[in-house]
Each structure stands twice: as structure tokens, then as C-alpha cells.
Write a structure and sequence with these properties.
two-stranded antiparallel sheet; Sodium/glucose cotransporter
Length: 775
């Protein structure tokens, strides 16, 4: 029982494993859970989705576009991007698993877990600059592979993307089930999965990705507010019975008396000099970066913003995200240790600890039923943001990379770089002495009839059998209407599939710990091939496919081989394959082999290429015809590779619309090359580089150096670390709650004023025309 005199135990004391669990007693009634999740969270999100629809329809007037469903218009503000990315980075495992790691390793486990994920976010943000400057019209990363290498590599990356998405969904299913099981009474697996499916799909089906941004704001704001209140409740405005387990003095005395793991300095839980902690940090970094690169939901959030806003959003999100796992894991893990120490043994079994029950146990013990509602709200918010992002990601892959390309393309027997409207090539590449016919289609921005078609669409004049007036874009506009319907069916199918999928993985015997750590081992071999697809002109289809497959085999063999050396071998599969060294022997061979084989095979397979010589002066001083002629004479080379990726575009919603101000500033004509993008966004790349360097310096050098400079934390040092984490969380809360609605409100107001000026201008022109006719 908690409350024994800790003076009975001699320090250092090694907490034995629990023989019998002090399990939580569920206190939330099933009907209360249903009301809160299905009517409360899901109902509120549906209202937000409807409101977002109205804004896009009446203010921005672009909700008729398929692309807007998946990129939210492409102009999302910095702060809204930051809070959305923060929300999607906040998995339930950050609330449930980070205290588990801290419980096993000590304060170093929590710190290195956080640093590993933050560094992965920062590294991924660098890749995003390549995406927006070399493939500004892409909506998914397999689209880039298709433009460069054709269908083979694209299908491989589609499989990788879908595997990653479903792996993340499995993670949040296990986390959601674990939380609901210990907090709510009489909940069946089927009811839990149904509730999760409704939460994931209730609002993204209505409003698309843009609604996800809006809901993510409310989710993130609520998460930070609740976390801040939790900190105040257990650390500052604390009740006497709670203070015994959460005061810095109690926490320090307990942790100082417990024997830490081998590899920690002085076998102490109160040290950042920890070999297991560093190993776990490396594993977490590889885990996070593998999932970040292969998760279409991350790319989608990045695509929805311009380069500077997106890059800044990623960096701000990294600083915001740090506040949550550190604030929660430090307090809950040490409070659990204190309770267990006074009991003389662990209060939870090893399996329950791995399932992430430390946080629910501590919160319910300290805060009672009120704490259960707090934790349920926290986990539900993370479930909604992450789950809806994955539903949108899977749907975008199905629409853009499977249906449009392989099931029902608008125009058959065309190359990835051919125009959808006329079938002619969008880039000047010659085959021998034969030069391709080049597309000269006008965009919808230059088409008056398209403007009338859009007005009819917004006014609701489209009846069954309606035909668009524009002879150039009308058929493709009708095709996109069909895709919008297909998109809805895709989302419904994905949402419905969550229930049987969840039943299968739960019955398989998997647990949260295995899904969280082992899934990225299977995606790690595709990390560098994906990077080469977006950044290296020398990459070839054969090199990427062979490198990825050999890397995957190496990763699986390494993980299995090392796992078999532990007690029980592979018969204890889910435990032994997620041991520290099993994961390392999966990640490292998979990463190295795939990288080396991809490079070697690509170099051997790569034929000599002529380089297209372009510079800024040439682009600005020569006419479009001269640029075309220059490209025709040099039909191969690095620039042509990126011309392929720049050809990814939607003729009805071209990326020229998003960057019209930037292109107007450099007098860009009809032909756009990567050098135009470099010229427009050169300053953005420089600013982003500085931001990345500063962020890396903070999280890779400064914080670890300060932590490692302290051998074993004294009580004052522990108080300082906790204080920094708490104040960081409070400051982040102020930013999250206040800044995004101000920026979004200003953006909506500016668009409304532009619409009003447009109406006034055209009304004046019409009046002038009528007057002239009368005269």
C-alpha cells in the first residue's frame, strides 16, 4: 500500500517488479464517455468543419477545387501551421510512453526522448525547402517519384506511405484503447474502435485538410491549457495530500534512494549522463525521422503553406512540442517512483508499464475522477489531430497516386510530364533528333469562360447533366468533380476500415510498445531513397528500388537476429525485437545498406548527362522562345530533372495562383524553371538555413552540454530543470492560444476586403459600359 515509511528501505533501493497490479479503477461511465467523445468532441468538430466550409465558399471562393481539400488553399499562416504540426507531433505515446521511458532510464530518458524527436522534426524541415522549390505543385511525395521515374518507383513509395499511415493509426488505436480501458467502465473493443473512427473522420470528411488545421488549433490550445493547469495543480497550487508525492523535495529524496540502471552515472536516476538514455535518444531520432519522411500527413501539412511559412512553422512547432512531453513525463514518472518506493514495490506490472499506464495511474491517484476527465481530454485531442491527419494522408494517396494515375486517368497513354488537357509535353525534351510537341494551353487564370463556370459552380447552378462552358478546361473540371466524389468515398472507406483493422491488430497480440518502436524499422530503409528522389539528380529508378529492397531485408534480418539472442529468443517476439540493440541492429543496417546500394547502382546505371547552363541573367534577359530553344538543345541534365517535378500541376488550380505576387516581382513569363524558384525563394532558403542552424545548436549542443555538465542532480538543480520545463510550457500556451486566431482572422479579413474591392471595381466598369452604350 502507498504510504509506507521509506526509512524502512536502505538506499540504494532496487524496486522489485509488481506481482499483483494496483490497477486503476475505471470511474467514467460508458454513457459519459459516449457523450463526451461522440457528441462533445466529434460534434464540436463537425460544427468547425461546417464553419470552415462557409469561409472557403463565401470568402476565399475556392472550395470547389479538389486541391483545396488536400492543401487548404496553400496559404496557411505561420502560427496555424506551427500549432497544427505541434498537434500532429503530439501522439498519445508522448503522454503515455515518455513517462514509461523516464521510469526505466530516469531523467535522461525523458530528455533524450524529447531531443530525438525534435531533431528529427528539424532535419525534416530542411527537406521541405527542396519540395516547395522543386515541386511546388505536388500534393504527395509519390507524385514526385512518378514525375521523375515513372510508375514503378511511385508504386513502391505508395506502399511505403500507406504502410506508414496504417502503422501510425495502429499506434494511436493501441494508445486510445489503453487509455479508455483504464478510465471508463464496461467499454468493449468494438465501442472504442467505433468512437475512434468517428473522431478521426467526423470533420475531415466535411471540410478536408483545412478543417484539420482549424480543429488542430482548438486541440493544441486545449492540450496546452490542460497541461499548464495540471502543472499548476500538482506543483504550485498543490493540495497537502498531493504535495507528498509531487514536491521537489519528495521527488528528489525518492529518486536519490532508488538504484538506477547500469550505464547511468553512479547508477542514479537523477543523472543525464546515461548510456541507455543516449542509446534510446539515437533510436528515437531514427524512429522519428523514419516516420517523418514516410508519413504523407507531414508532407501534407507542409504543402499547405508557402516555403517561408512552412519552414518557420516546423521550427516553431519543434519548440512548442518540447513543452508537453517534458512537463508531463518528469512529474508523472517521478511521482510514480515515489508512490512505488513508499509501497516497497512497483505498483504496476512490467506489462502495464509498457502499455503506458503510468500516466493514467498517477493522474487518477492524485486528482481522482477530475484527473480522469483531464487525461481523457488530453489523449482524445491527440487522437483527433493525428488520426484525422492520417485519414487525409491515405485519401490523398488513393486519389492522386492510385485513382488518377492507375485506375481512371483523365488522359490515357501519356507521360507524367505531359499536359492533362492536350496531351503534349510540358517540358522541352528531345528523343534523338525528334523533338516533342510542346503544350501551349492557357491556364484557367487566363480563361474568361472558366471564371463564369466557377461563378455558376459557387452559385449552385450545376444541375444533373450540366456541362461547363469552357471548351479547354470544361472536361477536366467535370473530371475533378468526379474526383471530389471519389475523395469522399475514399475517406468513408478509410474511416470504416479502422474498425476491422483495429480488431485484427488487437487480436494479433501486438502492444503499444512494439508498434511504436518496431514499425519505423520497416520504413527506415526508404528514408534515403526518398531523400534522393527530391534532392539528387543522379538517382535512378533501378538504384532506388534495389537499394530500398536490400535495405529492408537488412533491417528485418538485423532486428530478428539480434532479438533472437535475448532470453526466450523470437518466441518472445514482441518483447525481444524491441530491445535497444535489436532496434539499433534494425535501423543502422537498413539505413546504411539502402543508402550505399542506391548510390552505387544509380551511379552505374546513370548515363552521361549534358548540363543545361542557365543563370539568373539569362532568364531575365532572354525571351521565352530563346529559353525554349536553349532547353531543346540541351535536353538532359540536372535542370531537366527538376523541370519534370515542376511540371506537376493542376491546370485548374496552378501554383502560379499561389505565388502570383512572387512571380510578378521577377516578371516571370509562361515558362517557369527551378531557377525562377531559386530566385524567388533564395532569401527564404537563407533565413531557413539560419533558423535550422540555431535550432540544431540549441537542441543538439547547448541543452545536452548543460545537462551532461551536471553529474547527479541536487535538489536545487532538479528544481531548476522542472521550473524551466514548466515555464516553457506556460509561455508556449500563451503563444498557442493567442497568435493563430489573430493571424487567421487577419487573413480572412484581408481576403474579404479584396473581394469587396473587386466587386466595387467591376460594378463601376459595368456602370460605365452601360452609360457609354446609352450615349
Amino acid at each position: 500500500m502507498v504510504g509506507k515509511d521509506n526509512n524502512l528501505f536502505q538506499c540504494p533501493f532496487d524496486l522489485p517488479s509488481a506481482v499483483e497490479s494496483a490497477r486503476l479503477n475505471p470511474v467514467i461511465e460508458k454513457y459519459e464517455l459516449a457523450l463526451l467523445m461522440l457528441l462533445g468532441f466529434a460534434g464540436f468538430s463537425v460544427l468547425i468543419g461546417i464553419a470552415y466550409n462557409k469561409i472557403r465558399h463565401y470568402v476565399f471562393r475556392d472550395f470547389h477545387s479538389l486541391d483545396v481539400v488536400f492543401d487548404a488553399g496553400g496559404r496557411v499562416s505561420v502560427s496555424l501551421t506551427a500549432v497544427t504540426l505541434t498537434s500532429q507531433l503530439l501522439w498519445p505515446s508522448d503522454i503515455l510512453q515518455s513517462p514509461t521511458i523516464a521510469n526505466k532510464v530516469g531523467v535522461a530518458g525523458s530528455l533524450f526522448y524529447t531531443l530525438g524527436i525534435v531533431l528529427a522534426v528539424i532535419v525534416f524541415s530542411v527537406l521541405c525547402i527542396h519540395l516547395k522549390t522543386r515541386a511546388p505543385g505536388a500534393k504527395t511525395f509519390p507524385q514526385i517519384a512518378y514525375a521523375r521515374f515513372g510508375g514503378g518507383v511511385q508504386i513502391m513509395f505508395c506502399v511505403v506511405a500507406l504502410f506508414t499511415n496504417f502503422g501510425i493509426i495502429a499506434n494511436i488505436i493501441f494508445a486510445g484503447k489503453a487509455t479508455i480501458d483504464v478510465l471508463a467502465k464496461d467499454t468493449s473493443t468494438e465501442f472504442i474502435l467505433f468512437s475512434l473512427a468517428v473522431l478521426f473522420g467526423s470533420y475531415c470528411l466535411i471540410g478536408g485538410l483545412g478543417t484539420t488545421f482549424y480543429i488542430s488549433y482548438f486541440n493544441t490550445a486545449l492540450i496546452f491549457i490542460i497541461t499548464s493547469l495540471f502543472i499548476l495543480k500538482v506543483s504550485y497550487l498543490v493540495e497537502p495530500e498531493v504535495e507528498a508525492f509531487t514536491s521537489v523535495k519528495s521527488l528528489h529524496n525518492t529518486m536519490a534512494c532508488l538504484k538506477g540502471p547500469e550505464g547511468n552515472y553512479g547508477n542514479s536516476f537523477l543523472t543525464f549522463r546515461s548510456v541507455p538514455g543516449m542509446i534510446f535518444g539515437i533510436i528515437t531520432f531514427l524512429l522519428a525521422i523514419s516516420l517523418s519522411f514516410c508519413d504523407q500527413a507531414n508532407w501534407q501539412s507542409r504543402i499547405a503553406a508557402k516555403p517561408l511559412e512552412g519552414m518557420s512553422g516546423f521550427l516553431i512547432a519543434a519548440f512548442l512540442w518540447v513543452a508537453i512531453p517534458t512537463s508531463i513525463s518528469f512529474v508523472t514518472s517521478m511521482a510514480y517512483k515515489t508512490m512505488s518506493f513508499r509501497n516497497g514495490t512497483n505498483l504496476l506490472t512490467d506489462l502495464e508499464i509498457d502499455e503506458g499506464y503510468i500516466t493514467p495511474y498517477v493522474i487518477q491517484t492524485l486528482l481522482g475522477k477530475e484527473g480522469c476527465y483531464v487525461l481523457l481530454t488530453l489523449v482524445t485531442m491527440t487522437l483527433m489531430s493525428t488520426g484525422s491527419g492520417e485519414v487525409m494522408a491515405i485519401s490523398s494517396i488513393l486519389v492522386y497516386d492510385i485513382f488518377k494515375v492507375h485506375i481512371k486517368p483523365f488522359r490515357s497513354n501519356t507521360k507524367p510530364t505531359d499536359c492533362d488537357l492536350c496531351g503534349k509535353s510540358k517540358i522541352p525534351v528531345s528523343s534523338g533528333n525528334i523533338q516533342t510537341q510542346l503544350c501551349k494551353c492557357v491556364t484557367s487564370l487566363e480563361c474568361d469562360l472558366c471564371g463564369q463556370d466557377v461563378k455558376d459552380r459557387l452559385a449552385g447552378h450545376l444541375e444533373p447533366g450540366f456541362k461547363y462552358k469552357c471548351p479547354i478546361h470544361g472536361k477536366f473540371r467535370h473530371y475533378e468533380d468526379q474526383l471530389l466524389q471519389y475523395k469522399s468515398w475514399c475517406m468513408v472507406g478509410v474511416i470504416a476500415a479502422i474498425i476491422p483493422y483495429g480488431l485484427i491488430i488487437i487480436e494479433s497480440g501486438m502492444n503499444l510498445n512494439w508498434v511504436f518502436f518496431a514499425t519505423p524499422v520497416f520504413t527506415c530503409p526508404f528514408l534515403m531513397p526518398l531523400y534522393f528522389t527530391i534532392s539528387w539528380t543522379g538517382a535512378t529508378a533501378k538504384g532506388l528500388v534495389i537499394g530500398s529492397i536490400t535495405g529492408l531485408v537488412s533491417a528485418v534480418v538485423g532486428m530478428m537476429a539480434c532479438g533472437s539472442t535475448y532470453e526466450g529468443g523470437l518466441s518472445n517476439f514482441y518483447t525481444n525485437t524491441t530491445q535497444d540493440y535489436s532496434l539499433l541492429f534494425g535501423f543502422i543496417p537498413g539505413f546504411i545498406v539502402s543508402t550505399l546500394i542506391s548510390v552505387i547502382v544509380s551511379l552505374c546505371d546513370n548515363k552521361s548527362k549534358d548540363k543545361v547552363v542557365f543563370n539568373e541573367d539569362f532568364i531575365t534577359e532572354h525571351s521565352e522562345d530563346q529559353i525554349w530553344d536553349k532547353l531543346k538543345t540541351k535536353s538532359k541534365g540536372p535542370e531537366v530533372e527538376w523541370l519534370k517535378t515542376m511540371s506537376i500541376d493542376n491546370p485548374l488550380n496552378t501554383y502560379r495562383r499561389i505565388y502570383r505576387k512572387e512571380f510578378a516581382a521577377i516578371n516571370a513569363g509562361r515558362i517557369l524553371t527551378p531557377l525562377h524558384m531559386e530566385h524567388v525563394f533564395g532569401r527564404t532558403k537563407r533565413v531557413s538555413t539560419i533558423g535550422v542552424i540555431i535550432s540544431l545548436a540549441i537542441f543538439l549542443f547547448i541543452i545536452p552540454s548543460v545537462a551532461a555538465s551536471q553529474e547527479i542532480l541536487t535538489e536545487n538543480q532538479l528544481r531548476s530543470w522542472l521550473s524551466v520545463c514548466h515555464h516553457w510550457c506556460l509561455i508556449a500556451t500563451v503563444f498557442v492560444v493567442i497568435i493563430p486566431p489573430i493571424q487567421e482572422g487577419l487573413q480572412i479579413w484581408r481576403q474579404y476586403k479584396r473581394n469587396k474591392r473587386f466587386i466595387v471595381k467591376h460594378s463601376s466598369e459595368i456602370s460605365l459600359t452601360i452609360t457609354q452604350q446609352q450615349n
